[in-house]
Design brief:
With 299 residues, the chain is an alpha+beta fold. The protein folds into three domains: 94 residues, Rossmann fold (3-Layer(aba) Sandwich), CATH 3.40.50; 65 residues, Dna Ligase, domain 1; 93 residues, ATP-grasp fold, B domain (D-amino Acid Aminotransferase, Chain A, domain 1, 2-Layer Sandwich). The chain has eight helices and 18 strands. It has a five-stranded antiparallel beta sheet, sandwiched between helices. Strands 2-1-6-7 form a four-stranded parallel beta sheet, with helices on one face. Strands 10-13-11-12 form a four-stranded antiparallel beta sheet, with helices on one face. Helix 1 links the parallel strand 1 and strand 2. Helix 4 packs antiparallel against helix 5. The longest helix is centred in the middle third of the chain and has 18 residues. The chain starts with a strand and ends with a helix. It comes from Candidatus Shapirobacteria bacterium CG09_land_8_20_14_0_10_38_17. One of its GO terms (molecular function) is ligase activity, forming carbon-nitrogen bonds. Keywords: ATP-binding, Nucleotide-binding. Pfam families: RimK. This is ATP-grasp domain-containing protein.
Length: 299
Amino acid sequence: MKPILILANSDKNLLPFQKASSDIKQRVVFANYREICFGDGDKGRILIKKEREIFDVQKDFSLIFFRTVKHNMERVNLIVDYIDSQVLVVDRINKGGVYRATKAFQYRRLLSNDLPVTPFIYGSLDLLYERANLLGFPLVIKRSEGSQGRQVYLVKDKWSLRKFYQSYQKYEDRSGKYYLAQKFIDNDGDYRILVLGNQVLGVMKRERVDKNEFRNNVSLGGMIQKAVLPNSMLLMAIKAASVCEIEVAGVDIILDKENGRPFILEVNRSPQFKGLMKATGVNIPKAIIDFLIKLAKND
């Protein structure tokens, strides 16, 4: 079988996978986006230029895993457009001309498959301001393309919403980025479920420590612990990842403190796993590589 390619924004993001691959017989090539080369001198080929080797993205790999993307969508699109169906892509962020790494896209997929999401409104700040009373306060407002708890705001009342509107309207006009407003669900923490294909690899509970913080994210100082959830919630997470077409997914679920009802907050593509490894003891980079090899062999 041809090698597997794992691409990431930085060598730091690749390091856990490099360490995990030391005992694996299947060859895995690790590359930074800076090593991608495309020019007329290469006859239109897209190459990965390492110090001692040069790889043709189309001919030399059986599977490509985009570990992180961030500001490299141009290069990701270039690769996806270049390769044919014989090269498996995990996860395909742009498919059929549709950009899939947004909360709005996820919520449409989740809703159309009868999965529970928090009551929400997506659209311009004008629309959010006009219809906020339909959800009730407090509200959580997110950029549709935000991640890791960033660009997420708690709006407690109409006055706070007006202030938010005035602060971000010019940015919205310049960027064309819209927002997702969600009803705030009172909770004692949330759950991150790591899904690989149709299996759950591990579950952790995240709980905010700072009383002035409303987010439970580990990257924002949240406390973590290993968790056990009922099978119905695990199946919900697997289905959520499947309908969003994400093979390596971190599904975030919250339980309403009042009645215990579960809601899906988000399905994260290429999620962070340092906290989950600490909570569960699972070697997640190795599990992901094993999963990718299995996918490539079965394709």
